[in-house]
Amino acid sequence: MEQDxxxxxxxMELAEHGRGWTAPNPVVGAVLVREGRIIGQGYHxxxxxxxxERRALADCRSRGESPAGATLYVTLEPCxxxxxxxxxxxxxxxxxxxxxxxxxxxxxxLVGGKGIAILRAHGLEVTEGVLREECEKxxxxxxxxIREHTPYVCMKYAMTLxxxxxxxGGNARWITGEAARARVHRMRHELSAIMVGVxxxxxxxxxxxxxxxxxxxxxxxICDTTLRTPLESCVVQTAREQRxxxxxxTKDKERIAAxxxxxxxxxxVSECRGRVSLNELMRELGARGIDSIxxxxxxxxxxxxxxxxxxxxxxxxxxxxxxxxxxxKTPVAGSGVDSPDHGxxxxxxxxxxxxxxxxxxxxxxxxxxxxxxxxxxxx
Length: 379
Description:
Elements: H1 2-15, E1 29-34, E2 37-43, H2 52-62, E3 71-76, H3 88-95, E4 99-104, H4 114-121, E5 125-127, H5 132-138, H6 140-148, E6 152-160, H7 178-190, E7 193-197, H8 198-204, E8 219-223, H9 234-237, E9 244-248, H10 253-260, E10 265-268, E11 271-272, E12 275-276, H11 278-287, E13 292-295, H12 299-308, E14 311-319, E15 345-354, E16 357-365, E17 375-376
Parallel strand pairs: 3-4, 4-5, 6-13, 6-14, 7-8, 7-13, 8-9, 9-10, 15-17
Antiparallel strand pairs: 1-2, 1-3, 11-12, 14-16, 15-16
């Protein structure tokens, strides 16, 4: 069992190399072992390309090794259906592998235990559930998207110790340090889309891109109820270079056409409490293949998102500084709750030092949890 855990951790580390490139597919890693030697390894590198199992088998053969009789460690159950690539179960059977160790079972109904059943039916020994919880967490975005058909939403904001996201005069550069900002840009690469409100675009005229090397830009989603974003803004003018979607309630065809002529997509949804219906928007974005969103909105959009129940987890950066100002902006605005007991609680929390700042991460629990499940550590 100790050996299984060790090789599964290696497979999980490999899987992370595909983060940001495989959506809406999962990140998967695989390691081939025979007689205590690693003879092949691989990971799912890009959506539409070979899966981790086939990468590991190709690596094995490139080393001049034979996979016959080896043990395959894979973080997610091998697929057994034809998609953009052929079934991995076929490759495993053809290779003569004798044992397969699986981290998490696939929740895709096209697989859902069928892959494991096929391998066992052909006489392979299959061990399930090695580091299951960790493997499931690693692919929480994929699991959520398959089950709910809506994007997994990560709300991110940076604030000071006194809860301000900008100085009293509106200047927000910079609340956090370079290390925290670099990590946020990494998230922009790792998640499929970034979402802000029209207020953020009007105030900052941001590019909403990823400024790290060897990364991709996220799809930009602008919540703009009346479609009033200036046509001269960066997000509109660069829409042909970076996919940009406006979510609006307007039915003004001429106004919509002005944005579309510049390369923007406009999604018209219903109005809810005077704003874009975020629940309807999530269904629409999910249907368009968007599996995850980094919510970098201001206080109003953050409140609306929490109130709508679309936020799955929060990434909160806290800078060790005090700004003051009774009217200075806060990360979650709106009307607020009427009692501390009615707040939005974080579960499975972690605390981490990122450069000069603190980052608290946790899942949103819309029902107050009975107990805590926290992990604290400095890195």
